[in-house]
Write a structure and sequence with these properties.
alpha+beta; eight-stranded antiparallel β-sheet; two-stranded antiparallel sheet
Length: 511
């Protein structure tokens, strides 16, 4: 999940007033690799906030989404009130009735449909998307590319274990006009965390780890950790010994007291950022995690959900428990068995393989290359909290394994009971609330929807998901047997607009 940027708030109301159910206009969907700027010229006068104003209807309910840039990370929504204020220059409002918006969408129809990738169960078990839903998804993604908000997307939807929708649009590299493709690789950033959680739970099943093991059993330096016991008016703090050790379950649920992601002027936040274990030149995973053990915990383990370096520490625990390097264990026990042949850490990805260029926005709202993130995680180590590169089809394989109770195409990675334990609510509240988001909890390695009446995500209780700093997102709905993976590559800066497209695709994909 990306960390929030501090910037002035501007509000956005989004929706798509279609109200079309999957019983209408059933048809097939496919992959379009066309460059959409030319083919979508008819949409030029229409702002996305006007096309998508109103309600996203998924058959069971209507949800209206609002978001503020300070409170949105990855592809999820947080609620505020107000109308859309575009960060790009010269943006205007022209209210368009939903019927006219739909007509404009139809006029923009284009694209070819090569065969879908072969992932999951036979197509006869699939619940196909309606033509209208897949068409609307295409238009959402195509408009974002045409408008210059994003360089391109790869999006996949599966139902009942089989892929029913795939879309590639725009460019992986704008300068060379290399198009987005199903084999384009993306920096996953925090979408590495669910992969690390799967690796850890394999060791739990085999008895090499227990959720209640103290991590000092594997990393002795954590036995001497201290915790902040009080603060003074000057921003200083007092520390004391831990009343309880950090346990494996605390790492998986982000209730370890470990920080590292807060970007504020608070002295304690700055202390946690000072080692910057993600920076280049700090050595191995063991070296970097050793730096974490010297810092004071924010609070007692088990007290509060706090996003930070917990999964990087867990990766080091995996190394010790498995007796091999984390990246080697990950390949042998997760990536290779699942057929995730395009997923690895950047050091191990051949140079000739396509990797999407990282972009951000300049003051004019235009996309510009952001070279500081080309080698964000450095070399010589394998971070468990971020660092993998992958493709949308590869990550769909991981997601379908989780959606299938640990099984994909006859290969069992985890037992159904283990997946059920990972996806239940271990943390029932407090997740992302400091960012203005309600209704979310946490399982073992990813976010779980706790109250679908409070969250502004188009979601159902029990859905689980996560996103990455650079614009990747996955979402699984056990209730609706639907899986969505959307990938793009943009670092949200102070001039970037909102990453709303993945959640609109998610809403349209839901039966």
């Amino acid at each position: 999940m990306p960390r929030p940027h501090r910037r002035n708030r501007s509000d956005i109301s989004l929706g798509l007033g279609l109200g079309i159910n999957d019983t209408d206009l059933h048809g097939s969907s496919g992959v379009s690799r066309e460059y959409t700027r030319a083919s979508s010229r008819v949409m030029a006068p229409v702002e996305p906030g006007e096309i998508f104003r109103g309600a996203i209807r998924s058959g069971r309910k209507s949800a209206i989404f609002s978001a503020a840039p300070t409170a949105c990370a990855g592809g999820f929504f947080c609620r505020t009130d107000g109308d859309m204020k575009m960060s790009r220059q010269n943006s205007h409002h022209h209210t368009i009735p939903s019927g006219l918006a739909l007509a404009l969408l139809f006029l923009a129809c284009d694209g070819s449909a090569p065969p879908l990738p072969s992932i999951g169960e036979p197509a006869t078990n699939a619940d196909p998307l309606s033509w209208a839903r897949s068409f609307a998804m295409n238009r959402v993604l195509d408009y974002r590319v045409w408008s210059g908000a994003r360089s391109g997307y790869v999006a996949l939807v599966a139902r009942n274990g089989h892929l029913v929708y795939a879309r590639t649009t725009g460019d992986a590299d704008l300068a060379s006009k290399v198009p987005m493709a199903l084999d384009t690789r993306f920096h996953l950033a925090s979408m590495t965390k669910p992969v690390t959680a799967v690796a850890a739970m394999i060791l739990v099943e085999e008895g090499h780890l227990s959720l209640d093991d103290p991590i000092e059993k594997f990393i002795p330096s954590f036995a001497d950790m201290r915790v902040v016991t009080g603060r003074d008016d000057a921003g200083g703090w007092r520390t004391g010994p831990l009343a309880n050790p950090i346990r494996i379950r605390h790492l998986l649920t982000f209730r370890s007291g470990i920080g590292g992601y807060a970007e504020s002027d608070d002295p304690l936040d700055q202390l946690w950022r000072s080692p910057d274990i993600e920076a280049a030149g700090l050595g191995s995973l063991a070296d970097r995690v050793g730096l974490v053990s010297k810092l004071p915990l924010y609070e007692e383990p088990g007290t509060k959900w706090r996003y930070g370096w917990s999964l990087d520490v867990l990766a080091r625990v995996i190394e010790v428990a498995a007796g091999e390097k984390y990246d080697a264990f990950l390949r042998r026990r997760v990536l290779e068995p699942l057929g995730m042949d395009s997923t690895d850490f950047p050091d191990d990805v051949p140079a000739h393989l396509s990797l999407a260029t990282m972009y951000t926005h300049d003051e004019s709202g235009s996309l510009v290359h952001d070279p500081q993130f080309d080698d964000y995680y450095g070399h010589g180590w394998s971070p468990g909290g971020g660092g993998l590169v992958s493709t949308a089809p590869d990550y769909m394989r991981l997601a379908l394994m989780l959606a299938g109770g640990g099984l994909l195409e006859g290969v069992r990675i985890l037992e159904p009971e283990t997946v059920a334990e990972m996806t239940r609510l271990h943390v029932k509240s407090g997740v992302l609330e400091e960012m203005g988001i309600e209704g979310l909890g946490w399982g073992l390695g990813f976010c779980v929807v706790a109250d679908d009446q409070k969250t502004m995500m188009p979601a159902t209780n029990g859905d689980f998901w996560w996103s990455g700093r650079f614009g990747t997102q996955f979402w699984i709905s056990p209730t609706h047997r639907t899986v969505v993976v959307v990938m793009q590559q943009t670092e949200r800066g102070p001039y970037s607009d909102l990453p709303f497209a993945p959640s609109i695709v998610q809403a349209l994909a839901t039966p």
